[in-house]
Amino acid sequence: MQRSFIFASRLxxxxxxxxxxxxxxxxxCGAGGYDNRTTPFRLTVAxxxxxxxxxxxxxxxxxxxxxxxxxxxxxxxxLAAALKKIRERNQHVLFLHAGDVFQGTAFFTAFRxxxxxxxxxxMQLDAMCLGNHEFDKGIEVLADFARRVSFPLLAANLDxxxxxxxxxxxxxxxxxxxxxxxxxxxxxxHPDTPLLSNPGAMVSFTDxxxxxxxxxxRLTSLGxxxxxxxxHCGFEQDRELAEQVEGIDIIVGGHSHTLLGDFxxxxxDPVGPYPYVVHPRNGETVLIAHAWEWGRIxxxxxxxxxxxxxxxxxxxxxxLLIAQKTKPLQSNNNPPRRKELPACIKQMSNxxxxxxxxxxxxxxxDQYETLVRRMYRHGIATVxxxxxxxxxxDPATGRQSEIAPLVAEAxxxxxxxxxxxxxxxxxxxxxxxxxxPAGLLSQGRVYDLLPYTNALVVLTVSGKDIRAAITKAxxxxxxxxxxxxxxxxGAGIRYNLLVRNGIVIxxxxxxxxxxxxxxxxxQDNETYLVVVNEYMARGGDGYTVFAKAHRExxxxxxxxxxxxxxxxxxxRTLTRRPIGIGVVNxx
Length: 587
Hints:
This protein folds into 2 domains: 331 residues, Metallo-dependent phosphatases (Purple Acid Phosphatase, chain A, domain 2), CATH 3.60.21; 206 residues, 5'-nucleotidase,  domain 2 (Alpha-Beta Complex), CATH 3.90.780.10. The protein is built from 15 helices and 35 strands. The strands form 8 sheets. Strands 1-4-13-14-16-17-19-18 form an 8-stranded mixed sheet, with helices on one face. The chain has an 8-stranded mixed sheet with strand order 12-10-9-8-5-20-21-23. Helix 1 runs antiparallel to helix 9 and helix 3 runs antiparallel to helix 9. The longest helix has 16 residues. The protein starts with 5 loop residues before the first strand and ends with a strand. The N terminus is likely disordered.
């Protein structure tokens, strides 16, 4: 029998009435009577997703009256301050996280989820669904996180009963008694987690649609009228879930790092309004809410329900959090009459919140940040110009990652220095966290760039298998539901994208660099030494060809962060390289 977890939240006092709100995993929740009142039941859902250990905020370039400038957004102390105000102003508040707490910055490298757990506990998170990156460092690290947290981890389409370290620590759903209502929260993990991460053989994943229907049926039989789906399946699949599965009221999602809301005037590119509304064939209303990435935004969704548990009214604001006394870190121009930055940004979007840190969470974070700051003090190289990172090249403009080829070059350079004469290096675009700003490159910045700290492996692979791996990865990267993380950038190898009517349909002209400086076509019947990260070597991101490459597999004893740091230190200045991936348009 699955273990039951009961989590008690703090007591809320409203107009001299004491309400005890109890969180209960669905395995131990029971049915209860429904209070048939005519007054709508109002619920506020505050939510995060894909925070990726960005605990202290992250820089971003915004436009203020068409002037670009870089400011710091988010961070857990600001999130906590905004959340406190929401709880003060609203009677019924849920605080949810849609997965991918792990990986992304030196905070995870140093503390492996401990700092995230402590801060989320202190912010009184109500529930979290598991993201694929929660499995990146294996079951032991996730199990340690599960032991630390005071909130339930949810995933209805995940079976961990055969994994002793996780058995009983993951619930399919939970029920929260709020006022007169029972609110059900169902978790969904990404079904491709075995391809995207490292959950091991003892953890299995099932179809989210089937699992969701079963869990909704179970909850409604227990008298639950309001259903929230906490999903790490991505925005496109969330839209399909809303259309296909009856009984959903709200989907709080993650994985796709989707920006929703009123942000176009700031130079950002939202996918749609917040919340995104779906009306399935049954005519009901389903609200979809995503909060972008890295804790920059706190999503705030408010909904009113009738006595049948149906949404009759809703409103929402994704709050982009910026310090109350923010000054631009960088500005391309400085007109003498330019408005003060906070006022300038605020007038561009109603979703911008100027807010100062919560002092309690700030003190907690400082304990961890002291160690992390040391990683940023000493420079190892200079980045001459901003190096942008695009996961997939744009077939129309040719724009592509300017930093991923340097990472691949570092992998090739380092393994050759160690006497392993690799000819080709390939790196998946998703192993990099993003672009690299100009300026000092410190060890901490290297960890930020390559947050997954993958070991490097040298494989002996046939030209035929290399061609198959690159072609499959490219076509998958441009697929409908893909975020492009599997796109392959390389060193010692180059190729062209085959494009028809603006759509990538294949790969052509794969060539390999020779010792004499020439480039020759990849030969299917020859073998090559290829260095990749451990994630790709075990078949991650769909690189199953590499997982099956049994001719020779050599562990290098090197990490990608070590290779890149040593490479950067040796050349001293990092700058753009010539474009390595071309485009061939065909009629």
